[in-house]
TrEMBL record, chain A:
Its main location: membrane. The chain crosses the membrane at residues 12-37, 71-94, 137-157, 177-198. InterPro entries: Cyt_b561_bac/Ni-Hgenase, Di-haem_cyt_TM, Hydrogenase_cytochrome. This is Thiosulfate reductase. The keyword Nucleotide-binding does not apply. It comes from Limnoglobus roseus. It is found in: Cell membrane. It is a multi-pass membrane protein. Residues 8-211 form the Cytochrome b561 bacterial/Ni-hydrogenase domain. Keywords: Cell membrane, Membrane, Transmembrane, Transmembrane helix. GO terms for biological process: respiratory electron transport chain. PANTHER family: CYTOCHROME YDHU-RELATED, NI/FE-HYDROGENASE 1 B-TYPE CYTOCHROME SUBUNIT. GO terms for cellular component: plasma membrane.
TrEMBL record, chain B:
This is Sulfite oxidase-like oxidoreductase. Residues 99-246 form the Oxidoreductase molybdopterin-binding domain. It holds the Pfam family Oxidored_molyb.
Length: 233, 257
C-alpha cells in the first residue's frame, strides 16, 4: 500500500527552481568577467594540475571578449540571486525547516557513514530522517557558500565603499580568488547533487516538482517522509 | 510565500487513489514548471533582444544607472604602507603622444560660457603636494598597489575657480582627453573633486614615465583604471554627460569602486 506524503513546501520548491537559472546566469557572466584576467590554477611545484581555464574551454563556451557584457549581466542578476537566496534562508528560518538542515555534533561522523554506505563499504542501515547527514552538510554548506559569494562579491564590487569588508576578507586580490573558488565549489556541488538525484530516482525527483512522494503506508507511524535516497526501492 | 503546511489533499480511498493523485500532481507540477520555464526563456530572450545603448541592451543599462545611484561615489579608498607599492603592468596605449616633454606640456581647461585657459605644469607648483599609496584596479580584474604623487584635482579647480556656473552651482560633469582626443573620459563632478583624485606626475618615487601617462595623468581611486586617463591634456566641465571611450564600447559609464 502506498500513500502520498508531503515532502517539500511550495516556497522551497519554487525558490529552489528559480535559483537554477539565476545561478547559471551568474556563473556564465562570471566566466565572461574572469576571462579578462584568468591567472588561477592548481599546481604542484611547476606542474600544473588544473588551469582555470584552457583556451579550448573559453572557445567551446563562447566566453571570449565579453567582459563588458559579463559585468552588465553580473551586476544586474546579482540582485535577483541575492534576493532569492535571502528568501530561501528566511523561509527555512520562519517555517522551522532549518532544523532539518542544521547539523549537530553527530552530523560529521554520520555524514561519513552515509558516504561509506553509498560506496557500499558500510552495510548498517542509515538513521531515518528527511535528510541524511551528508545531505545536511551539503545543503547547509551550499547555503553558506551562497552567502559567501554575495559577501565576497560585494567586497570586490565596491572595494572603496566597503573597504572594511574587503580588508577583513584578506584584501582585494585574495577576495577575488575566494569569490572564484566558491564558484568552483558550486559547480562541484551541482555535479554531485545532480548525480545523487539521478541515483535516488524518479519518486525523489518528483518530490521537488510536486511536493509529494509516494511512500509505503507502513512508514506512516514513524514519519511523514522517507529517508532518501537509500530506502527509495 | 506559501503556507508552510501541506495543502490538504482529497482523502484517497482504495489502493489506486494515491497513484492517481500522484499522477495528477505530477502533471500539474510539470505543466506549471514548463510554463515557468517558457516564461523565463521569453524573459531572457526579451532582455537579450532589446535595443542597445552602446552595445548593451537598455534594461541592463537602466540597472547600471540604478546601481550608480545606489552606491554613489563617496568613501575613501584604503591607503597602504609605501613599501607595498610595486611596478604596474602597462596597459592602454590609446592616445599616447609622440612628445611628452614636461616643459612643453599644457593642460587646457574649459567650461560652458567661459574662456578656455591654458596651464603649464609649472602652474601646479603652488598647490599642496599629495603622496598616497593606493591600489589601482583595472576593470580586467588585476590590481596593483602603487605610490602616486601629484596635486588634488579639487585643489587645482578651486585655486583657479573652475567648474562652477556664474550662480555658483557646479557643472555636473567633467570630461578629460589626450592631446589627439583618441582617448577620452568623463566623470561626475563629485568623483572628480574627491580628495583622492589627483593630477598625477609621480609614480613610486620617480617622475611619471611616458608609458604610464607622463608627464601628467589622472589618478582616481573611486573608479576603475579605465577612468584614470593618461597624457591628460584637456579638462572640460559640462552640463550634459560627455562622451566616454569605454562607455561607448559597452562598459558601465559610472565604473565606480
Amino acid at each position: 500500500m502506498l500513500r502520498l506524503a508531503h515532502k517539500h513546501d511550495r516556497a522551497i520548491r519554487y525558490l529552489h527552481w528559480v535559483n537554477v537559472p539565476l545561478l547559471a546566469v551568474m556563473i556564465w557572466s562570471g566566466l565572461l568577467i574572469y576571462w579578462a584576467y584568468d591567472p588561477y590554477q592548481i599546481a604542484v611545484g611547476n606542474f600544473v594540475l588544473v588551469k582555470f581555464f584552457p583556451d579550448w574551454f573559453y572557445q567551446a563556451l563562447d566566453l571570449e571578449h565579453g567582459l563588458s557584457t559579463g559585468m552588465a549581466f553580473h551586476f544586474a542578476f546579482m540582485w535577483l540571486f541575492a534576493l532569492n537566496g535571502l528568501a530561501f534562508v528566511a523561509y527555512t528560518v520562519w517555517s522551522g525547516h532549518w532544523r532539518e538542515l542544521w547539523p549537530n555534533r553527530r552530523t560529521p561522523i554520520e555524514a561519513l557513514h552515509v558516504v561509506l554506505h553509498d560506496l557500499k563499504i558500510r552495510k548498517q542501515p542509515l538513521p531515518l530522517g528527511k535528510f541524511n547527514a551528508a545531505q545536511k552538510l551539503a545543503y547547509c554548506g551550499v547555503l553558506l557558500m551562497g552567502a559567501g559569494s554575495v559577501v565576497t562579491g560585494l567586497a570586490i564590487y565596491k572595494p572603496t565603499q566597503l573597504a572594511g569588508l574587503t580588508f577583513l576578507l584578506g584584501g582585494y586580490e585574495a577576495t577575488r580568488l575566494e569569490h572564484f573558488a566558491l564558484t568552483v565549489g558550486y559547480v562541484l556541488f551541482v555535479l554531485v547533487h545532480v548525480s545523487q538525484v539521478i541515483k535516488a530516482g524518479w519518486n525523489n525527483f518528483r518530490g521537488m516538482v510536486t511536493g509529494y512522494e509516494l511512500v509505503p503506508t507502513s512508514n506512516e507511524v514513524t514519519t511523514d517522509v522517507r529517508p532518501e535516497p537509500v530506502a527509495a526501492s | 510565500m506559501s503556507d508552510p503546511n501541506p495543502s490538504p489533499l482529497p482523502e484517497p480511498s482504495g489502493s489506486a487513489a494515491p497513484d492517481a493523485a500522484m499522477r495528477r500532481l505530477t502533471r500539474r507540477g510539470f505543466v506549471r514548471g514548463g510554463i515557468a520555464a517558457a516564461g523565463g526563456f521569453l524573459g531572457w530572450t526579451w532582455l537579450r533582444t532589446r535595443s542597445k545603448v552602446d552595445g548593451i541592451s537598455w534594461p541592463l543599462r537602466s540597472v547600471q544607472r540604478f546601481n550608480e545611484r545606489l552606491w554613489g561615489s563617496d568613501g575613501l579608498a584604503p591607503e597602504f604602507p609605501a613599501n607595498r607599492a610595486g611596478d604596474m603592468k602597462l596597459n592602454g596605449p590609446v592616445g599616447q603622444p609622440g612628445n611628452t616633454d614636461p616643459a612643453a606640456w599644457t593642460v587646457t581647461t574649459s567650461q560652458p560660457n567661459w574662456v578656455d585657459r591654458v596651464f603649464r605644469l609649472a602652474d601646479l607648483a603652488g598647490l599642496p603636494r599629495v603622496e598616497m599609496t593606493t591600489e589601482f584596479k583595472c576593470i580586467e580584474g588585476w590590481s596593483q598597489i602603487v605610490t602616486w604623487g601629484g596635486v588634488r584635482l579639487a585643489d587645482f579647480v578651486t585655486a583657479h575657480r573652475l567648474g562652477r556656473r556664474t550662480d555658483g552651482v557646479w557643472h555636473p560633469y567633467v570630461s578629460f582627453a589626450t592631446p589627439d582626443r583618441a582617448y577620452y573620459v568623463s566623470l561626475d563632478t563629485p568623483s572628480a573633486l574627491h580628495p583622492q583624485t589627483l593630477l598625477c606626475d609621480r609614480m613610486n618615487g620617480a617622475a611619471l614615465s611616458p608609458d604610464h601617462g607622463g608627464p601628467l595623468r589622472l589618478i582616481i581611486t573611486v573608479k576603475y583604471g579605465i577612468k584614470n586617463i593618461k597624457w591628460l591634456n584637456t579638462i572640460r566641465f559640462e552640463d550634459d554627460r560627455p562622451a566616454d571611450y569605454w562607455a561607448e564600447r559597452g562598459y558601465d559609464w559610472h565604473a565606480g569602486l
